[in-house]
């Protein structure tokens, strides 16, 4: 069957970039076609943010049961049913997927299932087994996301070497697992599976875990991970994976120049993701890529080198976060509809769902030093926060960076309970150019973990009450 559609905007990819852009455009009155080759919701909903957080929740429940005796509620005879863990995760994702489909319908967005190819700057072609759709369009938004980066070493194709998508579909809990890559995705899985009872080793190329974070946070999370029994090998380059006679994988790596081997049931490779642009036809179109050839080059309006084609999210090779993709989707939608809008990357919060959680926004201490910014640093230990102690979660701290002269808040790094929610107070303060005292004169409810942000800001001027 062949069909031809005419529309104002065609969006390729329905992740948090694409579907949010579609809804925004529809709200602004545009006719929109959304093309998706897989499931609605993209990586974020089906293989990323949401499924991992469903697993984090299962790990959390399991941990609470394991530690229940300390809280006066002894539970006996408990066990982990990995099949149920996986099916609950799938159920959460599919419920949210239905929610997005409902929103698309409500906003009269035409959803075309299939792989989209850009034939020319005003034509997108979608072909499936039974249907060929030609879409004539005024604008195109490329929101095709990213895919896992393959490690070019021998043994990478062995069947017990998995990526983040496959590890979330297992039907048996591995006894041991080596995680190659101690970045955000690797560390979230390290904590999840460690709590489930898998013996975890993390092998990281750089000299620390989560290398983009504040140095104090890096040290803290490494110490916490080690205390929980996770083996960490930093400064380590994985060179090969060998299958032994018992079908186990042996991961061979150099650690500080010394060759080491770990025998393991499963290997999880999480060394990063790269823009997914396969089959889009961008070479023929002559669309400019970034200088490192990774991702589509865009300007601050998310416009590509062809002015009626925009690109957003992971496909642009920038910050790989769902909320960045969505924010870019809105900026692109506004510009298409004639509303001038640009992306500001200076206040992007990031959230890591390790145990405890980590979150940060703005600059950190090292950045301030390197750029000769005169700052006051306030640090408050979570162990001094009453609510945290009631939760049984006393590890971590809040660290804030305040401009010494203007007293404006420049950034924060938090490790501790609810860190991923707490960071928002700082983000809002920064977006509005608030000073430390704007928050410290705000009464914070007691007992809450938010008091630790309040106290850290007091600490920046040497006026902390509870430490
Ligand atoms: P995607 O979500 O990747 O969506 C792109 C879509 O385009 C896909 O559905 C794909 O099928 C489709 N597509 C591609 N090519 C075509 C084509 N030619 N035709 C039709 N359709 C096409 N980010 C966070 O902010 N918080 C987190 O907690 C978090 N956790 C993560 C955990 C994991 C394990 C992973 C892998 C990622 C995580 N991320 C997280 C990152 C986040 O998922 C991505 O940054 C986000 O999904 C990017 O959104 P996007 O819209 O650019 O692309």
Layout of strands and helices, then pairs:
Layout: E1 2-12, H1 18-27, E2 32-36, H2 42-46, H3 49-66, H4 82-106, E3 110-113, E4 115-120, E5 123-127, E6 132-142, E7 146-148, E8 161-162, H5 164-167, E9 176-180, H6 184-196, E10 199-203, H7 215-227, E11 231-233, E12 236-243, E13 249-255, E14 258-264, E15 266-269, E16 273-275, H8 282-285, E17 309-311, H9 322-336, E18 350-352, E19 358-362, H10 365-370, E20 375-381, H11 386-391, E21 397-403, E22 409-415, H12 419-431, H13 436-440, H14 451-460
Parallel strand pairs: 1-2, 1-6, 2-3, 6-17, 8-15, 9-10, 9-15, 10-11
Antiparallel strand pairs: 4-5, 5-6, 7-16, 12-13, 13-14, 18-19, 19-22, 20-21, 21-22
Helix pairs in contact: 1-9, 3-4, 3-6
Bound molecules: flavin-adenine dinucleotide.
The site of flavin-adenine dinucleotide has 37 residues, from strand 2, helix 2, helix 3, strand 4 and helix 9.
Would you give an account of this structure?
This protein has 467 residues and is α/β, with parallel strands linked by helices. It has 14 helices and 22 strands. Strands 1, 2, 3, 4, 5, 6 and 17 form a seven-stranded mixed β-sheet that branches. A five-stranded parallel β-sheet has the order 8-15-9-10-11. Strand 1, helix 1 and strand 2 form a beta-alpha-beta unit. Helix 3 (49-66) runs antiparallel to helix 4 (82-106) and helix 3 (49-66) runs parallel beside helix 6 (184-196). The longest helix is centred in the first third of the chain and has 25 residues, at 82-106. The protein starts with a strand and ends in a 7-residue tail after the last helix. The mean pLDDT is 97. Flavin-adenine dinucleotide (FAD) is lined by residues 12-18, 35-38, 42-44, 47-49, 52, 115-116, 143-146, 164, 185, 276, 279-280, 313-315, 320-323, 325. Flavin-adenine dinucleotide binds next to strand 2, helix 2, helix 3, strand 4 and helix 9.
């Amino acid at each position: 069957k062949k069909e031809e559609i005419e529309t104002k905007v065609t969006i390729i990819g329905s992740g948090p970039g694409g579907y949010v852009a579609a809804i925004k455009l529809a709200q602004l009155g545009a006719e929109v076609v959304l093309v998706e080759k897989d499931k609605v919701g993209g990586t974020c909903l089906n293989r990323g943010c949401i499924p991992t957080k469903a697993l984090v929740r299962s790990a959390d429940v399991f941990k609470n049961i394991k530690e229940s005796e300390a809280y006066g509620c002894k539970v006996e005879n408990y066990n982990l049913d990995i099949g149920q863990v996986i099916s609950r995760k799938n159920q959460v994702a599919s419920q949210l997927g239905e929610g997005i489909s409902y929103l698309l319908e409500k906003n009269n967005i035409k959803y075309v299932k299939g792989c989209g190819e850009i034939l020319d700057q005003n034509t997108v072609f979608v072909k499936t087994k039974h249907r060929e759709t030609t879409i004539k369009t005024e604008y195109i938004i490329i929101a095709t996301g990213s895919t896992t980066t393959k490690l070019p070493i021998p043994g990478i194709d062995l069947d017990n070497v998995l990526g983040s998508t496959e590890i979330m579909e297992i039907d048996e809990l591995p006894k041991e697992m080596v995680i190659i890559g101690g970045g955000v995705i690797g560390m979230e899985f390290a904590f999840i599976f460690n709590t489930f009872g898998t013996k975890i080793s993390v092998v990281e190329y750089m000299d620390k875990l989560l290398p983009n974070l504040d140095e104090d946070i890096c040290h803290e999370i490494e110490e916490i991970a080690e205390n929980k029994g996770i083996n960490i090998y930093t400064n380590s380059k994985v060179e090969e994976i060998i299958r032994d006679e018992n079908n186990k994988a042996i991961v061979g790596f150099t650690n500080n120049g010394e060759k080491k081997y770990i025998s393991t049931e499963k290997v999880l490779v999480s060394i990063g993701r790269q823009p997914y642009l396969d089959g889009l036809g961008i070479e023929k179109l002559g669309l400019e890529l970034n200088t490192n050839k990774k991702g589509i080059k865009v300007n601050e309006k998310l416009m590509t080198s062809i002015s009626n084609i925009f690109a957003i999210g992971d496909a642009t090779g920038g910050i790989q976060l769902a909320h960045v993709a969505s924010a870019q989707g809105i900026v692109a939608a506004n510009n298409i509809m004639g509303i001038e809008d640009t992306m500001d990357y200076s206040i992007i919060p990031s959230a890591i769902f390790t145990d405890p959680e980590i979150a940060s926004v703005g600059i950190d201490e090292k950045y301030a030093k390197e750029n000769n910014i005169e700052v006051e640093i306030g640090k408050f230990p979570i162990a001094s926060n009453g609510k945290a102690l009631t939760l049984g979660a006393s590890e971590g701290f809040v660290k804030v960076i305040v401009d010494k002269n203007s007293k404006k808040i420049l950034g924060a790094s938090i490790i501790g309970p609810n860190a991923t929610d707490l960071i928002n107070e700082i983000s809002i303060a920064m977006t509005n150019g608030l000073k430390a005292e704007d928050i410290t004169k705000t009464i914070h409810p007691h007992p809450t973990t938010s008091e630790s942000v309040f106290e850290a800001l007091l600490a920046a001027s040497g006026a902390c009450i509870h430490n």
